[in-house]
Amino acid sequence: MPKAGYPLVVTLAEAATDLQARADQAPFVLIALPPQTDRVATQAIVAEAKKLACLDPLRLFVLGHGAGTVAALRLACESSLGVAAVATVAGSLRGEPCRVPWLDMRGDSDRCVPPASTSALEAWRVGNHCDKQTRVVRKTGDATCHSFDHCALDVQQCILFGVGHIWGSIEACGGKEPSGFNVGDWAWSFFQGHPRKL
Questions:
Q1: Boundaries of domain holding 104
Q2: What are phi and psi of 154, to 5 degrees?
Q3: What dihedral do alpha carbons 110, 141, 101, 70 form, nearest 10°?
Q4: Is residue 84 in a domain?
Q5: What CATH code is carried by the domain that includes residue 42?
Q6: 113 lies in a domain?
Q7: What's the rounded Cα separation, in Å, for the pair 100 and 127?
Q8: How far apart are CA 116 and CA 113, in angstroms?
Q9: How many CB atoms lie within 10 A of CB 158?
Q10: C-alpha–C-alpha distance, residues 160 and 183, integer Å
Q11: Which has fewest Cβ within 10 Å: 5, 58, 172, 190?
Q12: Among the ranges given (28-32, 154-158, 162-166, 171-175), the one the predictor scored with the smallest mean pLDDT
């Protein structure tokens, strides 16, 4: 067991994610919930998990997928849980920004989700005092990931070129499966680098 306790990752996802395989290897606890789970219910589930496992209070992370992205952003910004960082995958970007590190990942050929809103990204950039300039933090396989410079708290986006609805229905949403880039691994890597600051 890690000295400070186990990190906790809560997913609000409309399909199975590849974080389960990562949780079997890395020392973190995973709670997988349906995308429509509301904030109050999620907080109660996390409170119960804290009774059952030794959890690191500075390493609570949330990942939203598809229909769960809005709920994940609200949980990160509006709950009393003290979320350290949030990641969104293949979902709509709505809601007010907040001072939480954020990673967004999406396929540019996903017909089931509208393109990422430039205004949403801009709001998070401004809210975290980032410069307008970005730098490439990873380029591999289908994916290119950018991070805004000089942020108070990190804001990143990964675009997977030619890829459809990540962890979802390629047949219904178009595009292809990701190649050479593991979405769950990158989310976990982002989380590892962003414990909550006191």
A1: 6-192
A2: -60, 135
A3: 20
A4: yes
A5: 3.40.50.1820
A6: yes
A7: 9
A8: 8
A9: 26
A10: 10
A11: 172
A12: 171-175
Residue 53: phi, psi to the nearest 5? -140, 155
Question: Token pair for residue 98?
Answer: 């907040």
Kindly report, residue by residue over 109-153, the tens digit of the pLDDT.
888 876 655 667 788 888 888 998 999 999 988 899 999 999 988
Single pTM value for the model: 0.91
Contact 102, 125 (CB under 8 A): no
Contact 114, 89 (CB under 8 A): no
Question: Three-class SS string for 50-98?
Answer: HHHCCEEEEEEEEEEEHHHHHHHHHHHHHCCCCCCEEEEECCCCCCCCC
Residue 162, amino acid: G
What are the φ/ψ torsions at residue 57 (nearest 5 degrees)?
-65, -15
Tell me how far apart the alpha carbons of residues 64 and 10 are, in angstroms, rounded to a whole number. Answer: 8
User: Which phi and psi angles does 89 have, rounded to 5°?
Assistant: -135, 120
**Over 80: is that where the pLDDT of 19 sits?**
yes
What's the structural domain count of the chain? 1
For the chain, what is the total number of helices (H) and then of strands (E)? Answer: 6, 8
Residue 102, phi then psi, degrees to nearest 5: -140, 135
**Contact criterion met (CB below 8 Å) for 70 and 57:** no
